[in-house]
Each structure stands twice: as structure tokens, then as C-alpha cells.
Automatic annotation (TrEMBL), chain B:
The species this protein was found in: Ancylobacter mangrovi
Compartment(s) of residence: Cell membrane
PANTHER family in the record: PUTRESCINE TRANSPORT SYSTEM PERMEASE PROTEIN POTI
PROSITE patterns: ABC_TM1 (PS50928)
ABC transmembrane type-1 domain segment(s): 63-251
Entry keyword set: Cell membrane, Membrane, Transmembrane, Transmembrane helix, Transport
Similarity comment: Belongs to the binding-protein-dependent transport system permease family. CysTW subfamily.
Transmembrane region(s): 12-31, 59-87, 99-118, 130-154, 175-197, 203-222, 234-254
Gene Ontology CC, one term: plasma membrane
Name the record gives this protein: ABC transporter permease
Pfam family of the protein (one): BPD_transp_1
Family matches, as InterPro entries: Bact_Polyamine_Transport, MetI-like, MetI-like_sf
Membrane topology listed for this record: Multi-pass membrane protein
GO biological process: transmembrane transport
Amino acid sequence: MGAVRGAARRPQKAVPPMHATLDTVPATPAVRFQGVARHFGAIRAVDGVDLSIAPGEFFAMLGPSGSGKTTCLRLIAGFEQPDAGHIEIFGETVEGLPPYRRAVNTVFQDYALFPHLSVGDNVAYGLRVRGVARAERARLAREALALVKLAGMETRRPAQLSGGQRQRVALARALVVRPKVLLLDEPLGALDLKLREEMQSELKGLQRALGLTFVFVTHDQGEALSMADRVAVFNEGRIVQVGPPEEVYERPATRFVAGFVGSANVLEPAQAAALGGAARVSSLRPEKIVLLAPGAPAPEGTGVVEASVTDVSYQGPVRRVAVRDARGLALVVAVPAGAGTVALGQAVRLAVPAGALQPMEGEP
Amino acid sequence: MTRASLPLKAAALGGLAFLHVPLIFILLYCFTTEERSYAFPPPGYTLKWFAVVWDRADIWAAIGLSLKVAVAATALALVLGTLAAGALARAKFFGREPISLLLVLPIALPGIVTGIALRQAFGLMEIPFSFWTIVIGHATFCIVVVYNNAVARLRRLSPSLIEASMDLGADAFQTFRLVVLPNIGTALLAGGMLAFALSFDEVIVTTFTAGQQSTLPIWMLSELIRPRQRPVTNVVAVMIILVTFLPILAAYYLTREGEAVAGSGK
């Protein structure tokens, strides 16, 4: 990418060649947290977080609001200082360093574009405060805007742009100073669904092309699963599970993860054992359960549940059907469209393949 | 759209007339030939009072002092009012509310109280009356208008703008100069103009802090007691109206425009 090159002169935010990170220093994590805590009065916003983000990784921090994910992002950016623990960015200790001395840049949730500056001047801002000459920074800003498909918009005001365009300007403004790590704080939250899906693939493409480390905060599990190389699930100031999206989705480590990421069924040890699984607290994805035709025999190696339907909600490609059996086992089943009618109160037979039950590692 | 009823229109017109007809009389008696009393209608018309004003050194000294005091008090208020607003707009700390109340108090307090308090304070500290004692007296209420304007604008300024600036590599000073100042500039201009106008025609606090010096309003008060050359005060009054009215008008338009800009910026 020639678009954002040769920018910074001032040493305060050293800018490495954009591609060096992946090949030359794989051993040093891009971001490392060791026992990091941040308290606001009695509230433990971040409560002993350890994490290690690899260079070039697309890392998602997923969790409900108030789970500490945004505070972690602000700790990396330098807007917050940890009360305990240790933070490194590419091996450099950053505790006490103000935001303007860190080689990371942020795309803010509300974009935070400067209303008094044109789009071009917004993008060039980081270069301006580094003392880059006017002509040079105009050229770099133009290139950065072209990178986010906003070529020719330099003279507009932020107020004249749509939400999606502002988002792109914010992205260009952060990328033009060539950060080592790009932080994104719920950047897609304010966009409508179609635009959000478009930006998701575009962000992913941009991250791949630049080879940059992206740290992405979101409360939308779909967003985290579809974009990230690894997902850290936050709850109450701690990371409860971290791993590739498939792993977090398929094998949730705790009841919280099972419920928050794709809302899995949670079975108590006895219930799991009755269906042929281990006698552990286990998760069971709704789409793994098969609705059997009336009178059809259960396939080999499956547990069978005889239950009645308590609720049906139509969701386009699937219907989510809530059932309950005589012993009180409540399950949610995802029934694909066209798999027969299911009516409230109807008696159904369900097959649970033995491999579908996943014991939770984080639960007793 | 409903149209206002006739009595309401009449009342509105009456109110406006009550406020503004006296100003017309001020203007009218600038030109009268009668110098001892304000007889109506004026017995004759002349322009000689403008020449008289032009030649009187005491008037120019008073105008000069008033302008210098207003400029100094406004400058002091701009610096201190902006700093106070910056400290109190967003940060939460113990004692924030009392401090902001104490800051705004001088404008609610009767001028006579401020005046007496300052006079006694200057006396206790053995500070002789000077240009600067007047400036300090005026700054007490000038700070308030600057602070009020600045704090309102700062609270509308998204805090993430300041974070974005620092995130992009700007230190605190660069952030203030390149992001904060341009966004509160019109508010400061409006506050500064109001402060200037307030200072320029202030009488009460000035009476207690000026000693033997005469600012323009003080000069006018003392002039009214004299029996001769009454229209001279009218000429000076018209000058004051112009000097204070124009900045207030400008401030009004500037803040209106500023709100439109701030509203469309997000």
C-alpha cells in the first residue's frame, strides 16, 4: 500500500515500515497485558486482565456494556492509566505515556471528526501536529482518503457527510499516521445493517492489505465472529474466554459465553449424561439439535428428547423453537425453514448427536 | 400560525416605546440651543455641542480611561474566564459546584456590595487607587460573562474531540490551539464583547474603586450636577450608546452563527 507512506518526522510517535511487523518480529506481541486492573471508585472496570495480541492480528474484544472491553481499549490508547499491572506495546512499556507518545491510533465510536476542519484537514491533522509540510500532508491525506474510497472529498465538511462516510474519514485519519496498532471502538455501532456488513468486509480487507494489528471492541457477537482472528469475551472486568471465533462459538468455556455468544443451551451434568454426554455442565448449540419426523427412528448414537413446544419465533432462515420435556429440560432448537410445521403445544421428538454436547472447561 | 390580537400588539408597541423613546430624546437634546434645562420642544437647533465636546480635554481623558479599563478588564476576563471554564466544564472534583457558584456570584451580587467589599479590601491591603484597582473591580463581573459563554460551549464540545487530537499526536497545547480554541472562539468573542460593554458603562463598582479618577460614566454623573452646558452630556451619551450597542449587536449575531455551526458539527 503506497497510500500512507513517508509521513511522520517527529520522534514522539515512531512509525515503522508498514510491512515489517509480520515478518521480522513475530516473538514480540503487539499488545501485552499482565494483570492489568483499572478501578473507578468501587467499580472494578478492568479486574486483572492478561492478554497477548500478535502483530498483524485482528483481535476482537467482545462483551456486554460495562464488561471492561472499552476500558481495555482506552488503556492501550493511553486515555486511561492502569491501577495495577503492566502494559506493553511492541515490547515497549507504556504505563505513564500520554496518548500522543504512543504508536497506536483510535477510530472513535462517535468518529470524533473535528467539526471546524474540512475532511482533508481532518485526515491531515496527525501529520500537521508532527510538523509535516503542507504540500506533503495534503498529498498523504489525499492518498489515505483514496484508500477508504473517499477520493475527492477533501474540501467537504464533516457535517456534510453521511454516517458511513464519516466513519471512513475517521479511519483514514487514524491510518495516515501509520500506527503500529489500530484501535476501533464500536466503529460500526451507528451504521445501519447493510452499511455495517459492507464496512465489515472492507475493514477486514484493509487490515489484511496493510498487515496492521487491529483491536476491535464490540458488543455484537456476529461482528466479532465474522471479522476477528481471535475473540476475547469480556464479563465483569475479566476475560472469560479467548480464542478463534470457531472455538469460542463451538466450545464456550462458561455459561456466560454460551449465553452471550450465539445463545447456546446449557445442560446440567445429569442432563448432559442422560443424553450420552459427559457428566459435566455442557453447552448445546440450537442448530445441532435435529427435529425428527413423527415415528421416525432416532439415528445411531443420538440421545432422544420427547418434549412439547412452548414457544416458536420466526427468524427468516430458521425458526427458534423452545421445547420442554417431562423432566423439566428446556431447550431451544433452531429448525431450518422447510423442516415441517411446528405448532405451540405440539409434541416433538428431538435427536441430540453425542458430539454436539460440549463440556464447559470453565465450569465445575 | 396565529396572528397576535390587537391589544397584544398595542402592548408590545407600548413596551418598546417605553424603552426606546427616552433614547430618542437623548438624541434630540444633543442639538438643542437651550443649555440649562430640557424644555420641550427645544427652542432652537445647533451643532455647537459637538464642537464643545471635541474641545474638552476632560471628556477625552474620561473616554480614554474607560476604553483602557474596558480593554484591560476584558483581556483579564478572557484569560481567567477561559481557564476557569476549562477547569470546571467537564472535570468532576470535590468542591466543583461551590466554586462555579462563587465564580458566577459577582454578577448576581448588587454592585454596591462588590464595590464596598473591594474598597475595604484595597484599604486593608493598603493598595492605593489606580487604573488597576478599577480593572480588578470590573474583572469580577467581566469574568462571569466570559466564563458563562465558554463553559456552555465547552460542554457542547464532544470530549472525544480532545482525545482524538491527543491520539493523533497533539500535546495539550497543540490540542488547545488547534481544536479547543477554534471551537470556542465565537463564544469567547461574544463573551469578550459583552464584558467590554459591561465594563465601559459601569458606575457603581467604579465609584468605589476609582479614587479621584473619572471614567466616562462617572464623568457624566458629575456633569449632570452642573447647571451649564447640559447638552454636552447628551452628546457623550450618544457616543456611549454607539460604543456599547455595536459590540453587543455583533456578539448577538456571532453567537447565533456559532450555535448553528456547533449544531451541525456532530
